[in-house]
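Quick one - inputs below.
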Amino acid sequence: MNLWLIPIFPLLGFLANGLFGRRIPKALVNVFAVGSVLLSFAWVVKTLLGLDPIETKYIEHYFTWIQSGTLNIGVDFAVDRLTAIMLMVVTGVGTLIHIYAVGYMEHEGGYYRFFAYLNLFMFFMLVLVLAQNYLLLFVGWEGVGLCSYLLIGFYFTEQFATTAGNKAFIVNRIGDFGFSLAVFLIVRKFGTLDFSKVFDAAKGLPVEASIGVLTTITLLLLVGATGKSAQIPLYVWLPDAMAGPTPVSALIHAATMVTAGVYMTARSAALFIKAPITMDMVAVIGLATAFFAATIGLAQTDIKKVFAYSTVSQLGYMFLGVGVGAFSAGIFHLMTHAFFKALLFLGAGAVIHGLHGEQDLRQMGGLFKHMKITASTLFIASLAIAGFPFLSAYYSKDAILVAAYAHAPWMYWIGVLTAGMTAFYVFRAWFMAFTGEYRGHAHPHESPLVMTGPLMILAVLSIFGGFIKVPHILESMFPEGPENLGLEMLSAGVGVVGILLAYVFYVLKPNLPESFAKGAGGLYTLVYNKYFVDEAYDATVVEPLIEGSRTVLWRGIDAGLIDGTVNGVGTRSRGIGSILRLAQSGNIRSYAAWVVLGSIVLLLAIGFAGDLR
Amino acid sequence: MPNAVPLSWYLILSAILFGLGVAGFIFRRNIITVFMSIELMLNAVNLTFVTFSYQFKQVDGHIYSFFVMVVAAAEAAVGLAIILTVFKNRGTLMIDDVNSMKY
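Output:
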């Protein structure tokens, strides 16, 4: 089926725009950028139709990459139902965002550079999804990290953007370190990295004998996942990643790349279900992240920051899902989240675009009459994320929550509370932006069709995405979770309460939030400043690391030891030379005297040695 | 070879000549004298070669001494040319003054 064509199109787009983008007209850049992703999408559709129904895994082997002893790592791509869903989400949402970006980036410098990076990202993301072994997955994993870094720092003349890019890259290194250790352990334990072989071997392992090593492997994989998917404790890079252009936030930092951790966990389900300790860790981390990030989202004033914390929170839900064993529910939420969160970000981008770069919610308000399409599509997305009945997240989020209830009821209750907060903060943002009086100074205008078109398509997907029954599709791979209509309606009800609260706070009584904030006092300050986590990390990790590097590594080892050795050798040589130099007097008679003396010594030596007959 | 001069006499003479050459080379300052001392040393060595050649009835020593003479002649030509040039440029033949290539 030539699966390799799927990632190769964006790679060609990247090469074309990256090499010649500066010299060719903008229209051609658009054709390469959007066309390549569109072709990729078309090939995905054709492939999936050709393979339908994908009962077993379809594998294509291209060539052997690494051959060392018994270890054999090939470049293999594979498609099963899980991959199929990921492929559709990545290329489908990716295409829409590429189209949108044509309008959004219209007036930006570095136009071709932006699309080259974006296409490169698509290539690596598709490699990640299609990979049939851990190493190839790791290639995609690192590649998307690289593109994420490049695109966060896209406005590289701004200090905050480059710093945010560095932060994302470095924080991800911590996670990737865990991931690579896990890969090494898998090689050691199973002697292969091929998914099918590893999982088959894991299935046959006796529980008692293997629980230790499997727990270690999965915990290390989890470290990698927390880095890539922005979970506690490594979530700090994602809110800062909003320094990049908004389509990047939508594509990479909401819809696709950050879900790679969830995908990897679901892919490795065979390992995870053998390690119950890790599963509990995954669930607890996910739940904690969901709750914690939602509380931060309540008080943010930057529209993109609100959605960024919302992304962290929703990713927490997905981890909760896979952690309680409802892998298919996690993937379901991954898909619907890709729809509505991409829509939220693109809508936010349209607002920012219409306000000439303004991101502060306090400088918005009353925008509904200026940008009706953006406002209504954002309204749909907000309803969807709030879990409003029969919209997409109602199905996916509740599938997770019901599974959590079956695992441990307290998880369900915290999840429901978080759902209420989610509904509150997205509608807070919506009401602040679109109702009331306009508080800013720009001239708001609606975005062109090239931007609103993708918004409308995504709005349709956000409404009806829930009817794509992912758990049912994945039934052959993961057991379907329980259903419980009562619990579903309850969490949806809490979501509606959150919406109503936001309505009361920000439309009916606009003075209420302020007095509420005053009343909460210290708690509000704590939440508003994101619990001072960044400051705490700075004080405990970053500063000691920088200071240690400066005093020990730089001044001590580099300047002291290495430079000292090199310079010392030079100085000593000069010292010895300055003494030896004295022998070279330039006086020919003294040379002659030395020669004579030397000859005499030589003769004496020969004489004493007895060789002089 | 009856009534011949003993071998050691030749060698002692050669050693004396060589020693004189060395002393001259080391203690004299005039370049020409130094140059002559070198010739003296070379000829002292020649004498030794010839002596042993005669003693052992072999022709090798003679060949060597011829070589030495040829080299000495060539060296004299080059050396005297250098000395002339030095004198022309510096107006001195004192060997200690010709030290500008020191270091």
